[in-house]
Amino acid sequence: MLMDLSIVILVEMLYAVASLILVSAGLAVVFGMMKVINLAHGEFMMMGGYATITAVNLGANVFFAMLVIAPIVVGLIGLVVERLVIRHLYGRLVDTMLATWGLSLFFIGLATMIFGNTTTGISTPIPGFAIGNYQVNGYNFFIIVVSILLLGAMLTILKATRAGLIARGTMQRSDMAAALGYSPDRIYMATFFCGSALSGLAGAVLAPLVGLVPTSGGAYIAKAFITVIAGGPSLIAGLFSSASFFGVVNQVFTFAISPVIGEVALLVAAVVLLRLLPQGITGKFFRGKL
Amino acid sequence: MPGSLSKDFVTIIIVTALLIWVMPLLIATYTLTVLIVYGMLGLSLGLIWGFGGILCFGQAAFFGLGAYTYAIAAINIGESTIPMVLAVLVPAIFAALLGAMMFYGRLNDVYLGVITLVVTLILFKFINSTAGPQYVIGKARLGGFNGIPGFQTLNVPGNPDAYIWGDSYFYVCAVLLGVVFLLVTALLRSSFGRIAVGIRENEVRMSLMGYDVRARKTVMFAIGAAIAGLAGALFANWGEIVTPNLFSLGQSAEIIIWCIVGGLGTRLGPILGAAGLAYLKFMLGQQAVIDNTLIMGLILVLFVLFLPRGIVPALAGLWNVSFGRRPLGRIHQQRRLRKRERLNG
Predict the structure, then answer these.
(1) In angstroms, how far is the first alpha carbon of chain A from the final one?
(2) Do B294 and A102 make contact, defined as CB atoms within 8 angstroms?
């Protein structure tokens, strides 16, 4: 009995950490690498969700829609946004923040006009099962697996491939990269595409769990932000450590008191953490790791 | 700023009086009242962001806090004078504590934005979850997402049965905005205001000159919150209900858009931006072809890209180019002044 409960709590904690990683991965690339504060990140996720639902309604396989169609669609939207708006604002932190906030409102309005201000959703494609007396959502395991694969893939691409090396180099010294014959403009564009695609993927994978409305993005943006900022300068180590910290805090308070207090505890923990470690977790620990 | 304080005061009073007289002829006072309240809210962020250099993403938190403080206090006390005072004090104290935590922790820029955003979200989530009957302050139930309706609205001080509403409430709000504007003008002309602008320009230099930057920023932040709180209380009186939406991110976003569109670093810009955009939104709300949020977002993006300084500074620049005194004119003016001095002396 107690055994079952502890397994359930463990799974829930892993799930909380995994979904935080998923939610923040796209922002980690766009903000952590490119130093663009993308406040439209939540809306990119929302569009990923709508892309999935639309594709499924048109008859696509649900996993194909989530893992392939949604990232590509949102990535392309991100590409357009980068060319039209973000490109002019690199290096102007506050301006990117304001412009992307404008974009976020724009996309909310657009989604409201296209899909209406009603809740839509698809059912979870994986059935739940029981551990002892407790019912566990089978889809949670899928999210845990996806986020592990995602972290692995990001690590491999950034560390072991030439494209990752070029991208990291350009983010550090774009003039050097240009001198070596790479176009920083193109690389920024490609990186923003990847970041948007990751946001789209996250939104798509989480879509079956939530009722989707045009304003759904707002629920993710603050969480994604504090996870990335509290993570600090190292991309993947920071993402992993801060997601673990916040995920555990959230779940402990959720089980002890209530889900709302869990959310509030997460936010309070973020404020305290930023006050104590303004450079983020990896500004102090795991320095120099990727 | 050239010119003397008293001259400024006279100009402001005359312009305010004229506007109070003319505007009701153009727009219904009910709409106008809320435009004034938004103008005051815009001014509160315009002060701390445009002159103090503090980008607060959670100005709506203080607005909402003011409104909720007023509603809760009005239900418990049964008249409106003390609740109005509380609605200014509570957000100011809250902001002073929050600001002290941030500024003494040397957080700025992005971190400041994120923390104020997060605090707004915490308040929003908390208030939204207080639907149960156990959440009571005195006689007032917090009511969760339904908000608090049915509190005592503004009355003549000392006479709880003499309500101020309709046209007279409009005049009260308009005069209050004028008074706040005067106070802000006086503040910016004082040494405190000048030093605040100095901190905005170069924080390190001001601290090396011996000014306590952290304390000054905290005070500035609290003053902004006090104005936002007053706006919140006025809004509560206008709407006769307070809901958690006052704390929402959308509300915070709108305040920032007002400031950007109106023009940062001016006193008038945020007020005009707020009133103008709120009126635009009101007009757009009467059609259903294009979504409101979409247009607001588009306006913000276009302004950041093409007119990042805002309308008022752009117009002022245009005015100076077309009608302003040329440098030669200034020499003539100095000569004239010297001549007058000679005549007087």
Answers:
(1) 41
(2) no
CA distance A85 to chain B (A): 7
Q: What are phi and psi of A105, to 5 degrees?
A: -65, -40
Residue of B nearest to A278 (CA): B107
C-beta atoms of B305 and A97 within 8 A: no
CA-based nearest distance B182→chain A, Å: 29
User: How confident is chain B (345 residues) per 10-residue block, as mean pLDDT?
Assistant: 73 88 86 93 94 89 94 89 94 94 78 83 85 81 84 83 85 93 93 93 91 93 96 93 86 87 90 90 78 84 87 85 64 69 66
Chain A interface includes B54 (CB < 8 A): no
The structural domains of chain B, with segments of one domain joined by +, span 5-309
Mean pLDDT of A234-238: 87
**pLDDT value of residue A212:** 87
* pLDDT (mean) for A53-69: 90
Q: ipTM of this model? A: 0.82
Domains for chain A: give ranges and CATH numbers: 2-284 (1.10.3470)
Q: Is B209 on the interface with A (CB under 8 A)?
A: no
User: Distance (Å, rounded) from C-alpha B151 to C-alpha B130?
Assistant: 18
The alpha carbon dihedral of A21, A26, A27, A31 has a sign of: positive
**A-chain residues near B293 (CB < 8 A):** 105-106, 108-109, 112
Between chains, do A267 and B118 touch, taking CB under 8 Å as contact?
A: yes
Closest CA to B155 of B165, B164, B145, B168: B164
Pure H helices in chain B: 5-26, 29-45, 59-77, 81-103, 110-128, 166-189, 191-201, 203-208, 213-239, 249-262, 268-284, 292-306, 311-323, 327-344
Structure tokens at A192: 């923003």
* Beta partners for residue A120, in sequence order: A212
B94-123: b (≥16 Cβ within 10 Å) or e: bbbebbbbbbeeebbebbbbbbbbbbbbbb
Give kind and range of the element (H or E) at residue A247.
helix A235-256
Angle (deg, nearest 10), helices A93-115 and B110-128: 40
Of A89, A106, A275, the CB nearest to B294: A106
Check if the beta carbon of residue A27 is closer than 8 Å to that of residue A223.
no
**Residue A289 pLDDT:** 67
